[in-house]
């Protein structure tokens, strides 16, 4: 084989390392923080084995299994509890990290013409791709090692050395697999956004696939890389087979990406672009029409994704129902709330996850304004007869409608799937009110994004930190027993848990007022600032 | 009253002063050339004119209205072509042109088709596949198929081939003949010389020269090549003579335009065999202005130290 096509991979690796010198460490620090604060908290909150066994009673049901995977409830040590509660979600985040890091140095660099420059230098045809893979792999190895050492270093009895290394290895391995998936899609598609879109779709697909198979037929979960995360049974039987599978799959994907890269032309994908329209449709000929057109594909994909997510969660209700029918202790334990059946009490827990995920696309829709600005395309509009109010207004309207559609579709998905698997089904009105109580909180997130766009355009990404905070405190809220104010710092912490609680008017009204206020202020800021 | 008036305009980005008291005016039916080196502040000025950046001090008036507050009203009568045309990769050229024309208001279908033809653009291709020149064509077609009163063109030909440059120049002449005004920022001095009635030169955020080309040429030197029967003596002692050089073709030198008469009288005493003169080009003026200013500045800072 001609080694010239790999020429200078080493130098390019160092170069990419330099480009990522802040981004990659931030991811690693964030993930370590997220992972390492949990076990000591569990250790404090659930001091004895009895207490931990008590909590397994509420966790050993299909709804939790769908979200977190199966757990070792016979031996629910602090270690097993951590792995059960944290590992799948952390693996999903690591997958996302892999997708974003790899896209940045493959399709995104190529799209912007930077790889053309690199290729004009004495570097091989496959050098940049492999330099990216080398650096990404290195990043995940470091991540795996640091998390392993960190967990072991916590000095918790049930978290022994082998399990801790397996925990880290599962996360690193997941990163490698999705680095491979992304590297392949970067060859197949023609733009970085489509690369990210497809890779994230695969990530979500694998998550939902294992959610369903973990309940219905655990053996089938071996078909999903995110199923392997659970099959490793970290801190219980410590099964290393999944790690082996992850390494093999990522190696195969790396080789496939190299092959695809070597047989295609620079700046081309495998799906040739067809000629498009000669004239713009009526829809396109306005600022809001343009803004929608630019986000159309993403909007449709997210809409499908959230419907599927809702439906996946909805499909567990049949199992839930039969599970509770034969379990009297459970019936007694959960019978406290009035006006809601036992299975309906799980709806708020599921809705928190659904509504948080449904908040991602509208916030992205709002931040699209900033990315258009950065690419210098707002000039085309503002240089013509388009007012700034109209411009930001278009994006706000689109984001709000987007959020509305996302919540509605996920609720519809949940309802329709539940209806098909349950004997009586759930009431549509109840599902919709349980879903739409989250809408004002979502509006607050959109309005914060709008506010940043109006006043602090460089900091528009900060809204994602607030989003992650919300996700973190609500996801772990019950388990970690945070004080109330921690949850209330997030708009989602003020949402009543319909149908267990009444949909109280005041908090929803106040959230809406805050959202409207921030949006109006953002208009003022956007009109005053330089573009 | 000018169509576009820039009055004492300053723009600061934090501590950095990008524009420092810029003044100029573009009259009705006039093509104004706006020239200066990279980073001098041309694009910043244009972005303030468009109401995209807010002036730190001073004001910009277009059609008598304020460029920042009345941006939308103004833009209904204005067409703009940016220097670096970034388009949406997944829209076609045709879609972008329609969108742009529609956003300004007004619609001229036949003009659109005509321009697509003469600029030789395939409007069904996605913008992702366009070269720099083709993206510029999209912006130019959108601008010239709209019926504006003021055209603001920021280095519009930097990616076009000579043939298309020609087409572009015809478009500019056409709108000029219709009595429209044009602000043309450019690096291609021959283009500015050909098209512009007046030019303004900007440097480090300040306008250092404005006027018609004739007026500016006054400030510069004529190149002379001369052969005489007797050798010319002590030419250097005359006022306004520069860079005297003996070549095998004869004696070459440059002379300040106001000293031209004196110089010719003087050398004619030596019996002229051959005399060639070349008018000063904008290029000379441009180069000379910067060179001399740089030297002068170097001295000043040197002195301070």
Task: Write a structural description.
The complex is a heterodimer of chains A (531) and B (305). Chain A has helices at residues 9-19, 23-36, 38-45, 49-59, 62-68, 78-105, 107-111, 114-120, 127-153, 161-188, 192-216, 225-231, 241-263, 287-314, 317-325, 328-334, 347-374, 378-382, 388-421, 428-436, 439-455, 462-480, 484-488, 505-528. Chain A is mainly alpha-helical and 531 residues long. Chain A folds into two domains: 20-265, no CATH class; 283-531, no CATH class. The radius of gyration of chain A is 24 Å and the shape is globular. Chain B is 35% helix and 30% strand. Residues 296-305 of chain B have low confidence and may be disordered. The interface between A and B is large, with 35 and 41 residues.
Mind telling me which CATH architecture of the largest domain in chain B this is? 3-Layer(aba) Sandwich
The CATH class of the largest domain in chain B, by name, is Alpha Beta
Structural class of chain A: mainly alpha
Stretches of chain B where pLDDT falls below 50 for ≥5 residues?
296-305
Beta-strand content estimate of chain B: 25-35%
What's the short version?
The complex is a heterodimer of chains A (531) and B (305). Chain A is mainly α and 531 residues long. Chain A is 73% helix and 0% strand.
How are the SSEs placed, and which strands pair?
The complex is a heterodimer of chains A (531) and B (305).
Chain A: H1 9-19, H2 23-36, H3 38-45, H4 49-59, H5 62-68, H6 78-105, H7 107-111, H8 114-120, H9 127-153, H10 161-188, H11 192-216, H12 225-231, H13 241-263, H14 287-314, H15 317-325, H16 328-334, H17 347-374, H18 378-382, H19 388-421, H20 428-436, H21 439-455, H22 462-480, H23 484-488, H24 505-528
Chain B: E1 4-13, E2 16-26, E3 31-35, H1 42-49, E4 57-62, E5 65-66, H2 71-75, E6 78-81, H3 93-104, H4 109-118, H5 132-144, E7 150-154, H6 162-177, E8 181-185, H7 189-195, E9 198-203, E10 206-212, H8 213-217, E11 221-228, E12 241-247, E13 250-256, H9 260-268, E14 272-278, H10 282-304
Parallel strand pairs in B: 3-8, 3-9, 6-7, 7-8
Antiparallel strand pairs in B: 1-2, 1-4, 4-5, 9-10, 11-13, 11-14, 12-13
């Amino acid at each position: 084989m001609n080694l010239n096509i790999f020429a200078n991979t080493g130098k390019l690796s160092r170069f990419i390392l330099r480009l990522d010198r802040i981004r990659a460490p931030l991811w690693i620090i964030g993930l370590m923080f997220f992972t390492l604060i949990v076990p000591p908290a569990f250790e404090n909150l659930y001091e004895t084995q009895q207490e931990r066994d008590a909590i397994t009673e509420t966790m050993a049901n299909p709804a939790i299994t769908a979200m977190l995977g199966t757990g070792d409830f016979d031996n629910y040590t602090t270690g097993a509890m951590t792995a059960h509660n944290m590992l799948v979600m952390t693996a999903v985040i690591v997958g996302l990290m892999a997708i974003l890091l790899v896209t940045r140095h493959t399709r995104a660099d190529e799209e912007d013409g930077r790889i053309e420059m690199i290729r004009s230098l004495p570097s091989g045809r496959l050098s940049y791709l492999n330099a990216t893979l080398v650096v990404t792999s290195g990043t995940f190895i470091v991540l795996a090692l640091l998390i392993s050492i960190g967990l072991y270093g916590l000095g918790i009895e049930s978290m022994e050395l082998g399990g801790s290394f397996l925990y880290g290895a599962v996360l690193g391995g997941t990163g490698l697999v999705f680095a491979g998936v992304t590297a392949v899609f970067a060859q197949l598609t023609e733009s970085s956004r489509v690369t990210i879109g497809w890779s994230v779709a695969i990530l979500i697909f694998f998550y939902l696939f294992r959610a369903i198979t973990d309940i219905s037929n655990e053996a089938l979960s071996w078909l999903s890389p995110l199923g392997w995360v659970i099959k490793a049974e970290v801190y219980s039987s410590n099964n290393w087979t999944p790690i082996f599978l992850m390494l093999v799959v990522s190696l195969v994907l790396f080789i496939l990406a190299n092959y695809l890269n070597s047989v295609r032309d620079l700046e081309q994908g495998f799906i040739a672009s067809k000629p498009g329209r000669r004239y713009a449709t009526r829809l396109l000929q306005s600022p809001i029409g343009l803004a929608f057109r630019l986000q159309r594909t993403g909007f449709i994909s997210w809409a499908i994704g959230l419907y599927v997510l809702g439906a996946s969660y909805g499909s567990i209700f049949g199992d839930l129902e039969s599970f509770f029918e034969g379990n009297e202790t459970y019936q007694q334990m959960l019978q406290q709330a009035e006006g809601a059946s036992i299975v309906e009490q799980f709806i708020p827990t599921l809705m928190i996850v659904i509504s948080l995920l449904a908040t991602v696309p509208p916030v992205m829709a709002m931040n699209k304004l900033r990315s258009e600005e950065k690419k210098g395309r707002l000039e085309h509009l503002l240089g013509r007869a388009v007012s700034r109010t109209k411009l930001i207004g278009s994006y706000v309207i689109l984001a709000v409608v987007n959020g509305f559609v996302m919540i509605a579709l996920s609720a519809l998905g949940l309802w329709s799937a539940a209806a098909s698997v349950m004997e009586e089904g759930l009431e549509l009105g109840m599902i919709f009110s349980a879903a739409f109580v989250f809408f004002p909180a979502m509006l607050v997130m959109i309005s914060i994004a709008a506010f940043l766009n109006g006043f602090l355009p460089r900091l528009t990404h900060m809204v994602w930190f607030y989003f992650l905070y919300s996700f973190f405190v609500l996801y772990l809220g019950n388990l970690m027993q945070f004080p109330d104010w921690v949850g209330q710092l997030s708009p989602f912490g003020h949402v009543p848990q319909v149908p267990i609680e009444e949909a109280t008017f005041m908090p929803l009204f106040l959230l809406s007022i805050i959202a409207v206020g921030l949006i109006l202020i953002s208009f003022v800021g956007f009109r005053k600032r330089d573009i | 009253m000018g169509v576009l008036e820039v009055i004492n305009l300053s723009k600061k980005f934090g501590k950095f002063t990008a524009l420092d008291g810029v003044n100029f005016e573009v009259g009705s039916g006039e093509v104004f050339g706006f020239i200066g080196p990279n980073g001098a502040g041309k694009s910043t000025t244009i972005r303030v004119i468009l109401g995209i950046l807010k002036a730190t001090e001073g004001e910009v008036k277009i059609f008598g209205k304020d460029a920042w507050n009345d941006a939308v009203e103004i833009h209904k009568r204005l067409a703009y072509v940016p220097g670096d045309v970034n388009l949406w990769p997944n829209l076609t050229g045709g879609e972008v042109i329609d969108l742009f024309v529609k956003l300004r208001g007004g619609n001229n279908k036949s003009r659109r088709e005509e321009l697509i033809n003469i600029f030789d653009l395939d409007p069904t291709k996605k913008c992702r596949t366009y070269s720099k020149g083709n993206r510029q064509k999209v912006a130019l077609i959108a601008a010239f198929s709209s019926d504006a009163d003021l055209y603001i063109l920021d280095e519009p030909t930097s990616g076009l081939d000579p043939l298309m440059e020609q087409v572009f120049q015809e478009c500019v002449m056409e709108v000029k003949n219709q009595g429209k005004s044009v602000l043309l920022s450019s690096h291609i001095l021959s283009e500015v010389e050909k098209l512009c009635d007046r030019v303004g030169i900007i440097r480090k955020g300040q306008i250092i020269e404005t006027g018609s080309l004739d007026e500016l040429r006054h400030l510069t030197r004529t190149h002379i090549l001369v052969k005489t029967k007797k050798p010319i003596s002590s030419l250097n002692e005359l006022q306004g003579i520069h860079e005297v050089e003996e070549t095998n073709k004869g004696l070459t030198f440059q002379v300040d335009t106001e000293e031209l008469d004196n110089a010719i009288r003087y050398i004619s005493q030596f019996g002229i065999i051959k005399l060639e003169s070349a008018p000063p080009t904008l290029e000379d003026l441009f180069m000379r202005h910067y060179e001399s200013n740089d030297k002068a500045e170097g001295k000043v800072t040197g002195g301070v130290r």
